Amino acid sequence: MKKTLNYFALLLFFSAITFAQGFKVKASGEQTFNFEDQRGRNQASFFSSTPLEDITGLSNAVKGRVTFDVKDLKTIKGSISVPVSSIKTGIEMRDGHMHSAGWLNAEAFPDISFDIKKVADIKSVADNKLTVKVTGDFSLHGVTKPVVAEATLTYLDESEQTKMRAPGDLLGVQTKFDIKLSDYGVNNKLVGQKVAEEIEVSVNIVGSNAK
Amino acid sequence: MNKKQKKTIIIGIILIAMVLILWIVQGGEIFTKTQIIIEKTTDLDRMLGIRNKQFIDKFVFGLLPSGFGSVMEFLSAATLGFTIIVTSGFLIYLFKNKKKKTL
């Protein structure tokens, strides 16, 4: 009898891990989260090292939407994009070079985007927090390539505290992944400095499901 | 070398040393910055598992100028050092002894 109970407990434990596919929050059904923040608090950034100094580029003009069933994150679909012209590095002349045709070519390719294709390895960290592996199409400089990123998603039900940011439930998304500039046909020379071939991209955004 | 020229060299060296000290105190940045990134993560951001960084206007004195669009961008240890060296050289030339013409 004791052995059977142990097996049953073990089965419950593994099913909890295997079926941790969504959030355990008040909301249910399909929800759409909009990441456009008029106050510019959402951000996408990149980090690169050069022989002279490290460069951090930051954009606060992230936009996009994701839709998913709260109880089943595998249903997720949506995209996030950033206007190239909104990326700043703290040096105006460098920004100008970065946006120019010789580098990211903001005029010809105005947006950098990530289209979500699927999520896998969904792990529950807390009832309202999941870690996932997101596979999507990353488009930069007119080239689109598949990228896999580790992401952390946090769901907060609407409260007096969340209303200070935006009405509705909030979804926080944090992700980081590396890309190679040569994969996207980007010349890795910025203002005469050779920047690293590999760039780290980070995204820290919050979306609201308020209609 | 006369007294005035020696004085000019000493003042020039002191000024360059001060510029270098200012550069080191300002963080030893390679390029002059007019904007820097600061952490603005709030408690709510932490609850949402995200970090928030923002650019703010702040002047950081660098070793090299970051541009020519404004005086602030152009100001750097290199440009100030170069100006001091050129000015000192000009003053040393002005203070050189004029040989008296003799018959």
Low-confidence spans of chain A: pLDDT under 50, at least 5 residues? 14-18
**Which sequence of strands runs across the widest sheet of chain B?**
1-2
State the secondary-structure class of chain B: alpha+beta
Secondary-structure element string of chain A? HEEEEEHEEEHEEEE
How many DSSP-defined strands of chain B?
Answer: 2
Number of domains of chain A: 1
Radius of gyration computed on alpha carbons of chain A = 20 Å
Largest sheet of chain A: 10 strands, antiparallel
Kindly report the CATH topology of chain A: Lipocalin
How much strand content do the residues of chain A show?
A: over 45%
- Tell me, what is the CATH class of chain A? Mainly Beta
Gross CATH architecture of chain A: Beta Barrel
Quick description:
The complex is a heterodimer of chains A (211) and B (103). With 211 residues, chain A is mainly beta. Chain A is built from 3 helices and 12 strands.
What would your notes on this structure say?
The complex is a heterodimer of chains A (211) and B (103). Chain A has 211 residues and is mainly β. Chain A has helices at residues 2-18, 92-99, 160-163, and strands spanning 30-34, 43-49, 54-59, 63-69, 72-83, 111-126, 129-140, 143-156, 170-180, 189-190, 193-194, 198-208. The termini of chain A are far apart. Mean pLDDT of chain A is 88; it is low at 14-18. Chain B has one domain (3-94). Helix content of chain B is 49%, strand content 15%. Chain B has helices at residues 3-25, 43-47, 71-74, 77-94, and strands at 33-39, 53-60. In chain B, helix 1 runs antiparallel to helix 4.
List the helices and strands and how they pair.
The complex is a heterodimer of chains A (211) and B (103).
Chain A: H1 2-18, E1 30-34, E2 43-49, E3 54-59, E4 63-69, E5 72-83, H2 92-99, E6 111-126, E7 129-140, E8 143-156, H3 160-163, E9 170-180, E10 189-190, E11 193-194, E12 198-208
Antiparallel strand pairs in A: 1-4, 2-3, 2-12, 4-5, 5-6, 6-7, 7-8, 8-9, 9-12, 10-11
Chain B: H1 3-25, E1 33-39, H2 43-47, E2 53-60, H3 71-74, H4 77-94
Antiparallel strand pairs in B: 1-2
Helix pairs in contact in B: 1-4
